[in-house]
Design a protein that fits this description.
alpha/beta, Rossmann fold, 11-stranded mixed beta sheet
Length: 814
Amino acid sequence: MTKTILVVGDWVVDEHWVVGPERSTTASRRGESHYHVLHEPGSSVEALCGAGLVASVLGSASQGDGPLFDVHGVGAWHTEDQAALESMMCPGGLKGHNRFQVVRSELRHKEPAGFGVALHNLHLQEDSQAGTTTRVVRIYLEDAGKVRLLHRIDWSRPPNQLSGNHGAAWITEPGAAEAWFADSTLGVGKIVPDVIVIKDLVKGVVSKELIQGLVANFRGSPKRPRWYISSKKWHHVRSDKEPDTWELAPDSWIRELMGEVDLRLLFVPQVAADAAMSDRHHCINSWVSGAGNAKGKRSEPTWHALMLMQELARTTAGTAGSPDVAVQPDGERVFARVEQGTKSSLLVRSLDAGAAGSQGLVPLASVLFAAVVGLMESPNSKDPPRLHAVLDPAISFAKEWVAHEAERFKPKLWLPEHAKTRLKALDLVKPGTEATRDSKSEADGDNVHMPWEETLLEWEASRKSGIVGGEGNHPRIELWRAMTDVEGYICLVASKRRTVRAIKRVLREFRAQSRPEKHVSMLIEADPGSGKTFLLDKLAAQFDFELTPYNITRMVSLSEIVDCFDDIVSRQSASSTPKPLLVFFDEINALLDQNQVYSMFLDPIDRGVYTRAGRPFSIRPCVWVFAGTGMGEGRPETKGSDFKSRLTLHPQPFGADLLKSSSDTEDDHRNLSDAELERVYVGAQLLRKAFPEVESTTNLVLDAFRLLCPTVSLRDQARFVDKFTDVHPPTVWASSVPEELIIQTWNDERDLADARAGPYRVDEKDVHRAPARCAKRLATLRTEFDTQLDAWRTRRSSAKEGKVEIHEKRQSGS
């Protein structure tokens, strides 16, 4: 029996124009750029997006020779576009849709009998001004066989603005949607759906009032429809009731569904996943941990991602329990939390959509969502399978669909085909067998299937001691668990992570611009040896920048800074399509020619201009990162206030001053605990770097890194590891640890505190004091250290050391 599916959401018609440079000698009014299209007269440049694409995939789904679903689409479009949109539901209806004709006859292609989608327009008025079809034109440049997006132009009319600045929607009057759905004269009132699909692009169709109307109209339906949701809007906020909990935002329309409907799937596309990390929502720092931050490498969700996905399921539970939750954190992977009976599982799946050169050009998320819905609902059963049974075939279909669509971006005639875009019914040979997989762990290449609770327990263990697994279960320290923000960079201290996230946000926003128009600049306040250059090197690799580091202390005159500007311009001109530059000036507070250097950078970061020999030169927009020590100390005139005022991002502290106060607050304890655990992870990483043959160490060696003074720098930790003696791979034992250097880190900090304890005078007007580290706090920690060191010595003398494997990434099957 054919199921009825109601698809509700934003309908968008995309146009993809692929162009090349036009070199005409007779053209006039050419503007900044002149291009010509590379399409053939019969090419298809139009495509459906959003709810239209979801409806098209489901409407063409087949079981044998017949349709799998009876699909109805609800959206908003120009009243005269109804027939054209119905034609576009069939791939043949897209043929020849281009701009080579001013007036074109609609081909009105139809699907075979039974296939297709019945459309229902929210715009009831005949006035063309009251109804508009949203169109998005994307212009791509084809150059040397590569295609990149140049421009996007939206043809859209803003709907009614909602009160409270919560967005805009077409239906905002209470009861309006309910009356519309119940109107049998419109056709939609006669629908009895098995499934309701919401595809929200945040363009005005989906609103609280529309969802209220849907719920009210189908509450008493004999079929009790199952619901599937995909929304580009991020719907959650952090709860202030207890840490690491979240709840639905007050303005979320999902609130109207809770306890009212049978919600089977909540799909979070990349746009919404990115929004969760934004400063506005601040729900999560990073979705992807470890090597997954690097393109094409194995990945898993972070601990906070797991907690957040669990909360997404809990806070959206419906009449049949919690839904499955799928998150697409980027274009490379999908994370899923799947309900399997009384237990849950974690699924990680690689998309590898970029293999066809289509990443970012074709809407994979909408196709994947449609495929998942279609396959979950394809078996003729009252209780469809859960996500784990259909995710792999859905991804396979989406990748094939994307690869086919990507052909339209090549300079040749491309035509849509049925065979490449038709979803086939899923044949579960043994329904229910997949549900037993939660009893074991699977890790196959880029794919992971693990029990949810086991995964959470491993993360909790790693957050406490760094060591995962117990006796007989391969105790190990997995470095990727501490690399949740940047691939290859360990960062656990909260204040440092905030700085890293701020830098990432700036780099991401700059990289998202096809032609950046303004320079971006920021200042990091950090001590020497804190790992700034290492961090920026990793960030440059992650966001595809070219890092150009300079150090003021290695220069002897101000003229050398101008030489650096020349070098920057030279690098920018070296290639026709260079990587954007990440320019790093370290020790910005150092003196040259007995002068501060801040004034040298005012025009470059503000206007992109510098002067040599009286002549101005331009620097194309780039990202500037400055770093200095003690930028908040001393006289006001040494602070470079004018320089700081021109920065895009206000000065960022790099790490917490763990000895700055004598307080004993929860934040102080958390900072010390995080810094201690960070030293353990960094120590294990440095051991692998210094001794590549090393595969394991012991719990005593890892505890030695805990004993280091909290203020020890990354550079000092590296020197500490270099002094290890009698290392015999594959294991580093406690006998190799230079105990005297552990004590030295505390003595050095004490000497520094003594040196900085009193006021210093530059002139009679100076009344500022250097911010001395609190001697009382240091003394308290030193007493604790002495006790811990004695205990460590006792354990070492007992010759009982537990071996701990060092893994840079998750091992297959672990």
